[in-house]
Design brief:
Layout lengths: L2 H8 L14 H14 L5 E2 L11 H12 L12 H15 L8 E4 L2 H12 L5 E6 L3 H9 L3 E6 L10 H7 L4 E7 L11 H12 L5 E5 L15 H4 L7 E6 L12 E4 L2 H14 L5 H12 L3 H22 L5 E2 L7 E5 L17 H12 L1 E2 L1 E2 L8 E5 L4 H16 L4 H11 L1
Parallel strand pairs: 1-11, 3-4, 3-5, 5-6, 6-7
Antiparallel strand pairs: 2-8, 7-8, 9-10, 10-13, 12-13
Helix pairs in contact: 3-11, 4-11, 5-6, 5-10, 12-14, 13-14
The protein binds pyridoxal-5'-phosphate.
């Protein structure tokens, strides 16, 4: 080996599997917000994807009790028997689904389960169908695992949902999975049992395609919407469906890092092999807390859902009053996904032309001090995602600032008129 090639190898070079993956744009926006705050700016962040509520006290107390009782050691690699039993009861109670302990996996968050499932099942070039707009991690996890993300546009006119025809067209002999996420991050769109039915009929005809149902926002649905999950709607798919859920969103436990999944034991076993080498096991204390979350009083879940519904109404009404912005009423989650394409091409007071959703969001952050995430980060340019997981007062202030900032935008035509009149 020559001296230069040894020197070259001494420099860090990321593995090829990271070639098309970067730090999430949301993380970048969050750190820019922090920088602006350090500079003394009053920034309202409507970018984060976590409930602003605290974890309920009875859950924290269960964790403290577990610590004092010595639950501070490694647990079995894919979950304690107590948590698996609580998960089994949850699926029976909420979804009418029956699972045995070896059909259940517990991980350090739902994201970790998705990672384990993809690492355990994908061979290079295997395809995973997912909706656009998508949750960014789906794409990146599939790529890290060597798979190919097959992006299927889900139009706003179709409620940001897959159509059966688009799904059928996307399936190839290389398809391994389809990811269904309801309610969705980033759009808030949810599938009723009737919405799912034609898609599941397509999937029944393609027995090589496995179904990943990401139900993490199950308990955050509005207007009496009846949550539905594919394995319960179509028993014919149960033997190839992985149902993913967790405590992060329903119980405001994002930092505790506990997710759970249920599916065929062959897949659950393979996911356990991955997990055993990645983390050994999920946190013992967090698992004890999750048992209490799933088995203890559920009042806070319902109360918080009501609070989210009022916030959704506030935000969507406020956004739809702003000329140039249009926002569909989401059925669930705590995200509003608004269209801003009519504002692209307009000029800011300092003369910058807003040439994309990203420059629009940057303009909102710099001039209005409001952080939202550009739709292009989710594969849907011309939109932005606003998280309403924050107080009503902050939301009102945030929406007012967005409205004011948008009113300062000039069309190209305005600019010429002004220039002419000034001349
Ligand atoms: N799935 C979706 C759609 C999400 O939005 C998130 C978090 O933002 C997750 C899964 C992961 O949740 P966690 O890893 O906190 O359980």
């Amino acid at each position: 080996m020559t001296t230069t090639s040894i020197e070259a190898r001494a420099q860090f070079a990321a593995a090829e599997r990271l070639a098309s993956i970067a730090v999430s744009p949301i993380m970048r926006i969050m750190s820019f917000c922090q920088q602006l705050r350090r500079e003394g700016r009053d920034v309202i962040s409507l970018a984060a994807g976590e409930p602003d509520f605290d974890t309920p006290d009875h859950i924290k107390e269960a964790a403290a009790r577990a610590m004092r009782a010595g639950a501070t050691k490694y647990t079995s690699h894919d979950g304690t028997p107590e948590l698996k039993a609580a998960v089994r009861d949850k699926f029976r109670r909420d979804n009418g689904l029956e699972f045995t302990a070896d059909e259940i996996a517990v991980s350090a968050g739902a994201k970790h389960l998705i990672f384990n499932a993809m690492m355990a099942s994908l061979n290079p070039g295997d395809e995973v169908i997912m909706p656009v707009p998508y949750w960014i991690s789906y794409v990146d996890i599939v790529r890290i695992a060597g798979g190919v993300a097959v992006l299927v546009p889900c139009a706003e006119e179709d409620g940001f949902r897959f159509t059966a025809a688009a799904l059928e067209r996307a399936i190839t002999p290389r398809t391994r999975w389809i990811i269904l996420n309801s309610p969705s991050n980033p759009t808030g769109a949810a599938y009723s049992a009737a919405d799912y039915a034609p898609l599941l009929a397509v999937l029944l005809r393609h027995p090589h395609v496995w179904v990943m149902a990401d139900d993490i926002y199950e308990h955050i649905v509005y207007d009496g919407f009846r949550f539905a999950t594919p394995a319960a709607i179509e028993p014919g798919l149960r033997q190839r469906t992985l149902t993913i859920n967790g405590v992060s969103k329903a119980y405001a436990m994002t930092g505790w890092r506990i997710g759970y999944a249920a599916g065929p034991r062959s897949l659950i076993g393979a996911m356990g092999v991955v997990q055993g080498q990645v983390t050994s096991c999920p946190s013992s204390v967090s698992q004890a807390a999750a048992v209490e979350a799933l088995q203890g009083p559920q009042d806070s879940v319902h109360e918080r859902c009501k609070a989210f519904e009022l916030r959704r109404n506030l935000v969507v009404n406020a956004l739809n009053r702003i000329p140039g912005i249009a926002c569909r009423l989401p059925e669930g989650s705590f995200f509003a996904f608004a269209r801003c394409s009519d504002l692209i091409g307009r000029t800011t007071p300092d003369g910058t032309v807003l040439d994309s959703d990203a420059t629009f969001c940057e303009f909102l952050l710099r001039t209005a001090g409001v952080a939202v995430v550009p739709g292009s980060a989710f594969g849907a340019p011309g939109h932005f995602r606003l998280s309403y997981a924050t107080s009503n007062a902050e939301l009102e202030r945030g929406c007012e600032r967005i409205a004011k900032a948008c009113l300062t935008l000039e069309t190209y035509h305005d600019r010429r008129t002004n220039q002419h009149s000034a001349a």
